[in-house]
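discrete fold record:
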Amino acid sequence: MEYPRSTTANTTATATPMRPGTPDSAEPYGDSITPLPRQQNPFASPLTSRPASTTGSMVGPRVPGAGPNYFHSRRVKRGEAERPWTKKKDPKEKWVTILPLIGILIGLGISGFLIWDGLRTVVKHNYCLLLDEDWSEGFNDKVWTKEVEVGGFGNGQFEMTTNTDENAYIENGKLVIKPTLQDAKLIETNNIINLLTDKSCSSDIWSNCVTSTNVTNGTIVNPVKSARINSKKGAVIKYGRIEVKAQLPAGDWLWPAIWMLPVDSVYGEWPQSGEIDIVESRGNNYTYSQGGNNIVSSALHWGPNTANDAWWRTNVKREALHTTYAKKAHTFGLEWSEKYLFTYIDTRLLQVLYTKFDEPLWKRGNFPIADSNGTRLSDPWSQTGNDATPFDQDFYLIMNVAVGGTNGWFKDGSSGKPWVDGSATAKKDFWNARDQWMPTWEKDGQMLVESVKIWQQQGYNGC
């Protein structure tokens, strides 16, 4: 919108006639309209800037021509106002400072004591290095034994363990434990494997040394071969530390384990004399419902008989973070003493299983009075007076890759399991499905052991 222009040169000049219909074109049709002076137009900019204040400050009127008048401070000057509170101090005022300082000092003292007491009570064991195995000198048969059996080791495992270089050998400075297929001829025709013939069997139980194929009833010899080695001959400890650096295998129905058994069954047959599982896993991939090679577990087995194994009270799982335990080697460790036992991965700070021996295991197990068949259960441990019993004897290390089994480690009907535990033809059913599981073994279907270190705790076994 445009506004009428004003002129200061001639305020009496007659306005120029405007186009009819506009507010300023009233002369032909009525009285003329004289525009307001610019300074009176409410929409026009003022002719001058903001008018000067008639009062130079808040303290008095401004005198014209006296120059700029600045803000006058009203701040009270030092000494002008009285401060009676400074003349007499409250005797309690000092405690406002003293009490917080006392509280801080007491808190620091208590914290320091707790830290000192914690460090003082931490058990610092001394150890003797018993074994430092890096395979640089090959397979040391003065320490290690390759077990040879066909009986399934109490779990109905499908592998036959051998003492040949086919299933356990040194390659690129690492111990390789590799499962392989059985000779098809031994499965497809009637045959017998008798380990007693050449006295190679590691067991004195006949069923662990002899097996056969009967094509009529569907029973077969072990469908696969693998290896299981132990340190019983050359490295046993009673309390101490163990570290095994190993890469676990990847492959369906493989069952890798690094674990320990007692040298002597002092308290009775398994599990009365105990078992220490440092690490166990499954070779199946992460989609396996029970957890594949992305999960490991540690456990202790203990109980008055096989039907009352309390392993579930001392069993913990650990899942790998965005990877699997078959991708690279990890250090699987055990620290074991009279007061506690724990397992760990890569560092002692990353514990898996921790068990404190602070009460008799018979009490901790809360076992029933009698077995399901009515047999009364008796306490095999508390008479020693040692809360660590049965884990107070010499144990040796075992490393193996098992395959399959009928003890429930692989759950029936889960993730395409090709056999049923209770079936008389479980081994044959597994063998018939080899086109499904054998390809999964081809790349990483073996355990690679880089090193084994064993320390004996001071005060035992000559340390």
User: Anything to note?
Assistant: Confidence is low (pLDDT under 50) at residues 1-31, 47-59. The longest strand covers residues 447-457.
